[in-house]
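Worked Example 4.2. Consider the chain below.
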Amino acid sequence: MNKPERPRFSPLATAISILVIAAALLAGHSSRAALMDDWPVKFHPHLDLAATYDDNILISHTNRLGDVIFTVRPGLELDYGDVTRNFLSLNYTAGIETYVNHGSQDAFNNYVDFKSGFSFGHLTLQLQDEFADEKAANVQIGTRIEEDRNIARLSTEYLLNKYFSAGLLFQQEYHHYVTPGQIDYSLYQPGVALYYHALPKADIFGEFDYGWVDEQIGEDRRLANVNLGIRGKITGKITGQIGVGYETVDYSGSTPAVDAVSSTVSLHGDFTRHTSADFVVSRLINPSVTVTNDSYTATRVEFTVTQKLFYEKFLATAGGSYERDDYDQPVSLSPRVTRSDNLWQAHVGLRYIATKWLELGVLYHYQWDHSTDSQFSFYENVATLDALLRY
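Applying the procedure from the previous section yields the following structure tokens:
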């Protein structure tokens, strides 16, 4: 069912923001502030200062604008409990961006991350919520826009016996575009999973998800996804999850259904004490926010290598990714337009860990998008210097 325009802040994210601000004020005015290390709740203030040169701030094909951006990101993280068993973590970060030559692009962004995990005998529970009120470049739309989004994930797992465990899953998303012209939507996706403990540190799993998407305008849709895979310590040096499945999306009106092979791969390898790598693959069907009754299948492959240098005081990273977005334009469009985006990205960076509370870094990032609809094609070079302080 189509919905009216949603409020900019979800209730959960607003409550979390108020909690963080209140905690910060209490910490600042308490006479026991000097004894914070003895408190059950740990306070971790952090501050990131950055200077960035971006040669295409609007990721535009024809209107390339370069600028220098100064960013200040103060924040506070609250931690409670033991992250290996039972814990709560709440982190608020403000992002204040100032453009030297294009003040209309200045932004005040807000980010709230909440994570928790609990273990009760045979039952484990994990909850994560990510909220962002952010003005940033969006490749699907082809310019900078302001968006409010809230993504919540809940997973429970119950150990039935030494061979099997069963799980319940739920994901909920809200996307509201403050910049006019985009299509708001909400996603609700419950699921079930069965895990077979085939190896001491690895499980074979099967997962089924069924959900629905409520669109602000256009047809709503139903989705179903079946996945099979393996998770845990896959080899002696590689941990993570590999899943492959099939996804289908049905529209509430006359728009034809969309089907695709789905995939979720997330692997981390610790090959030596100083060398590690991450490999990520995803393939999912996503709602289009630019055209009604439209979806796109996003296939993404990403690889990053990390190397510790000079007595582990320097951290070098290098990596790249490729993403292909195939849009299923509705037949109602006349003439019917097909769009495919090919997005290539590469990055290289170096961080100096000066002390346990101070890091200095430099990062270069390049991306090139070649689209069959030329108005969405662009290339961009971004170079950033930053200093991160955290307690």
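The two ends are 47 Å apart (CA to CA). The chain has one helix and 18 strands. Compare this with Example 4.1 before moving on.
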